[in-house]
Amino acid sequence: MSALPSSKAAKEDEAPPDTSEGARTRAAAREVLEGRRKGLRALLPFLGPAFIASVAYVDPGNYATNIQSGSAFGYNLLWVVALSSLMAMLLQTLSAKLGLATGNNLAEMCRLHFSKRVTYGMWITSEIGAMATDIAEFLGASIALNLLFGIPLLYAALITGVMTYLILALEHYGFRLLEAVITALVAVIAACYVIETVFSRPDWGQVAYHTVVPWIGGTESLFLAVGIIGATVMPHVIYLHSSLTQGRIVPRSQTEARRIFRWSIPDVVIAMGLAGLVNMAMLYMAAATFHAQGYSNIADLETAYLTLTPLLGAAASFVFALSLLAAGLSSATVGTLAGQVIMQGFVGFTIPIWLRRLVTMVPAIVVVVLAFNPTETLIVTQVVLSFVLPLPVITLVMFTRRRDVMGVLVNRRSTTVAAIACSAAILGLNVWLIGSAFVSLFG
Fold it and tell me: Of 116, 162, 320, 365, which is most buried by a Cβ count within 10 Å?
């Protein structure tokens, strides 16, 4: 039996004419599916969802883990970033495919297929992950405002909340405008790291070697490796991506479902590839700038900013803080959207977006008020995310391998094997980390 959301397609046909930007995007996609639009113009209507998802892969948590990893261990952990980026491409492709094939997002699928007790347990766990994400994103943007303008962290956190709400309000004018703003912020981050690459002059031979040759030195490097995976393969955005595709362009047949999915693959590859390159740039910039010159204890973002000035100049410090601000604002926006999807999907209700933004600010405000080290807090949140991550990954693989759920978009056997390997790698690293921690404490 087909998993195609045909009822949604029927509603689409019966709906009154829509002149919004979203309607124009759907009309352009329809031209592609009917063969009336070709070439690069044919790709444009399908671009967007993965770029929103990609923001979570270059959030302030990535800055904290990548910079500390690069300063402490040089280029050695680049392979973890590369592996995480490949995982991200695979998992986000599956997430996009699930929304397209079923007309439901991952959280909704869990509610439909699991018991209420299991669903509520998954919701609580996912909300913990979303809270950890929000702490990282708010702190990152707040630190950036503090570094750029000298605004105290508490006021900077409040300003961050207002700015992210204003960005979220753009959704009222259509999803394409929000996609455009988020994509522009991602472009700012990417441009900043092109500039940082020019400033830092990394050893490209070392970059190439350590991108493909695995290395784990001990408990500290393993802790950072797990943090990199948690910061790169974000659990909340796996839920979000499936919601971004579930009703964006509704297929009217199995053939159309396949074609829409094929057009969505470049969106994922381009967006996640860009995010992966930015993450690698963060790490090799820290390796080339800090580790190479004996600064192996760059444990916080403020120190990184201040140390860049004497090493590379004031311009490098400014670019670093600007990219951190763009990352914090964009990822905080996306994190709020993901939180709404998680709540609505698992338990079937939502709260006003302003209220969720206000509530999710509280943990970050508490961290600031209690004067916890912001960067250490960022790294801990990324490790928390890595422990939460197996839950959406395992359920995503469970659903996308089922033909009765996915129809013609069911996983190939090789895809399922690769996704299971991702889950095993994540679980294995977490178990290793716990075991190493116990040995160091009680051994």
Answer: 320
302 CB neighbour count, 10 Å cutoff:
16
Q: Are 135 and 367 in contact (CB under 8 A)?
A: yes
The CATH T-level fold of domain 50-442 is Amino acid/polyamine transporter I (1.20.1740)
pLDDT tens digits, residue range 332-362? 888 888 888 888 899 887 777 767 767 777 7
Average of per-residue pLDDT across 6-31: 61
Phi, psi of 280 (to 5 degrees): -65, -40
Q: Is the dihedral of CA 289, 291, 292, 295 positive or negative?
A: positive
Query: What residue ranges do the domains of the chain occupy?
Result: 50-442
